[in-house]
Structure formats: structure tokens, C-alpha cells
Amino acid sequence: MRLTHDRTTPATRPYAGLHPEAILDAIAASGHEPDGRLFALNSFENRVYQIGLEGEAPLIAKFYRPGRWSEAAIREEHAFLAELAAADLWVLAPLTDACGETLHRSASGHCFALFQRFGGRPPDPDDREQLISLGRLLARIHAIGGTRRYLARPTLAAHLDLHAAREDVLQGPLLPAGARAAWQSAADRLIATVEELEALLPAPIGVRLHGDCHAGNVLVRDERTWLVDFDDSVSGPPVQDLWMLLGAAGHEAERRQGLLLEGYLEFADFDVGEWRRVEALRARRMLHFMAWVTRRWDDPAFPPAFPWYGQAAHWDREVAALREQAEAVEAASE
Predict the structure, then answer these.
(1) Among 19, 21, 47, 15, which Cα is nearest to 34's?
(2) Are the beta carbons of 145 and 282 closer than 8 angstroms?
(3) Where along the chain do its domains lie?
(4) Which candidate, 196, 183, 173, places its Cα nearest to that of 299?
(5) Are 115 and 94 in contact (CB under 8 A)?
């Protein structure tokens, strides 16, 4: 199915018109025969459904949030996944239709892709072989990711822009007036420390990444470690796909780091100096997450999922967290 035009829905109602009948009609138009069964799956940024089919195994339909990624950016993600799958890496690429298309559009104007239903169990953070296997997988992903550049998708630094995140929180509806000055001061200090640290480090090597590589996007099945959900795939330093798998700092984090690298180094080189970049990356993610919830607050799915963001005490904790992270970034600069 070819996409012929660009229709979007208002930012305050991103999924207007995406009712069950529209979803099933979209699946039928893509060449499948729904049997009427439709189950919403957990997802905040996009809308994801399990679709029952006549005489076939169910499929997973992922409807992309309008305005977040361009069609070109989504197609780049799909192309990267196709490259990885063609190399027999353990990732889930979108299904192609009879015309070779992976990206479709519903009558409501929403872009969507279809995926094989795929189950698995969460990884065991203490399992030696799983960590080594995951290190191998990431090294191979980064090796392929380094063979060409994204053109429509941003760099990690642009995707997690510190100044844009700061402005979104300050201009949004959630930050209480009583916490505004303290939060702004803490955010400004953190941004300054990140910029100072990043100025000391070599320019990062930019490869195509998973981008959001934490345990929630890892599945274990048939003794294989799979990586799913490349929705945040961008170009950036390989260490971005490693640090979130380590957990809190300490002995266990060091052990996991060693095992991930043991597997990684079988297929790719890794500059250990890149670990200095982690606290800056953590800071970018912290500010980005606060801004993300703020930006999405008018989405009905967000207030029930993050009710503490409407509480003054939560912002006091955020101020303390920003100050603590600034100290961690400063320590990494020494």
C-alpha cells in the first residue's frame, strides 16, 4: 500500500478517529482479514494493538503518534531493522505487504506498521550468558549501524536537547509556581555541567542505535536475547545502548558492564573512555523524561499513568534529583 498524502490530527487529540472500527478497517485494507478481536497493549507514545485474524496467528499493529516522526524517519527505522534482520540478528522488523511496503495509513490519517506477535520473558539482570549475548547483539547492531547514516532521524544530542527540554517544562502546565525558581536553577546548573563535560570529551562517533536500550525492550525467548521497539532509534555514541542496562552504580553495575563488554568486544571495538559520557547521557534522559510527560499531559493516557507529576512534592524530588545528577556529571569531569 502506497502512502499518497500527509494527513495529521491535532496535537491535542493525536488519536482522534482511531476507534476500533477504523483500526480493523485499516488492517483489512493492508491485506489481512481481521476476525473482530482487538486488544490494546501497553504503550504511551504510540498506540499498539493485537489484532485477531481469520485463520492466521494474530498480528501486532503499531499506530504512530502523528507529528512525532516524519514518514521518511519511520521508513529509515524500518530500513535499519530490515538490514539487521537480513543479517540474522535478533530484532523484530515490520512485515511487508505484497508491494514490499512496511508503512501504511489508516482512513483516519494515522501511519501504522504490522509486526509478528512475539512473546518472551524479561531478561535476568544477573544472568551471565544473557548479558554476554546482549553485548554481542549490540556490537553487531552497531557494526551495521555504522555502515551508513540516518538522514531523516536526528542525532541523540538533538533528540535529547537539554535547552528544549528545559523550556518545555518551564512553559508547561505542571511545574508548580512554588518550585519554579528552584527547578530552573537546578536545571540550569545541570545543563552547564553537561556542556562542560561534553566539551572535554572527543566528538562522539555517530552510529545508528537502538536509542532506548533498557531491560523493558529486551526479551528472552528460546535461549536467545532479542531487542525490540526501535522507535527511538537515532544516531549517537554506542555507549548510549549500554549504560541503561547496568542498573544503579556499584559492584553489580561493574559486573554487568564487564559481561556486556565481554560479548561486545567479540564483534566490535569499544573505547572505554566513552564511559565518562554516561553521566551526561543520564542527565539528558532525566530532563527529556520530565519534558516528555509535560508535553504529553493533554493525552488522556498520561495523567492516570503519572499522577505524581501533578503533585508539588514530586517537583521537590525532581529538584533534588537534578542537583544530585549535576554533582555526578561534575565528578565525571574531574
Answers:
(1) 21
(2) no
(3) 20-116, 128-333
(4) 173
(5) yes
Give pLDDT tens digits for 154-178. 999 999 999 999 999 999 999 999 9
* Beta bridge pairs of residue 84: none
Q: Given this chain, do its domains 20-116 and 128-333 carry the same CATH topology?
A: no
Q: Cell for 131? A: 548479558
Instruction: Judge whether 8 and 109 are in contact, CB under 8 Å.
Output: yes
Residues serving a catalytic function are 212, 229
CATH no. for 20-116: 3.30.200.20
- Measured CA to CA, the distance from residue 264 to residue 284 in angstroms comes to 24
Give yes or no for residue 185 having a pLDDT over 50. yes
Q: Is 194 helix (H, G, I), strand (E, B) or coil?
A: helix
* Coil, strand or helix at 208: strand
Q: How far is CA 153 from the centre of its chain?
A: 13
With respect to CATH, is domain 128-333 assigned 3.30.465.10?
A: no
> 306: Cβ–Cβ under 8 A, 6 or more apart, which residues?
293
Rounded Cα gap, residues 104 and 94, in angstroms: 11
Question: How many CB atoms are located within 10 Å of the residue 101 CB?
Answer: 18
How crowded is residue 250: how many other Cβ atoms within 10 Å of its Cβ? 9
47: β partners: 63
Q: Assign residue 114 a region: left if phi > 0, alpha if psi is -120 to 50, beta otherwise? A: beta
How much is the average pLDDT of 308-313?
Answer: 95
Distance separating alpha carbons of residues 326 and 334, to the nearest angstrom:
13
- Grid coordinates standing for 119? 512473546
Q: Is 184 helix (H, G, I), strand (E, B) or coil?
A: helix
For residue 277, give the DSSP letter: G
Per DSSP, the three-state class of 94 is coil
pTM of the model: 0.93
Q: Which residues contact 92 (CB under 8 A, 6 or more apart)?
A: 81, 85, 115, 116, 118, 226, 228
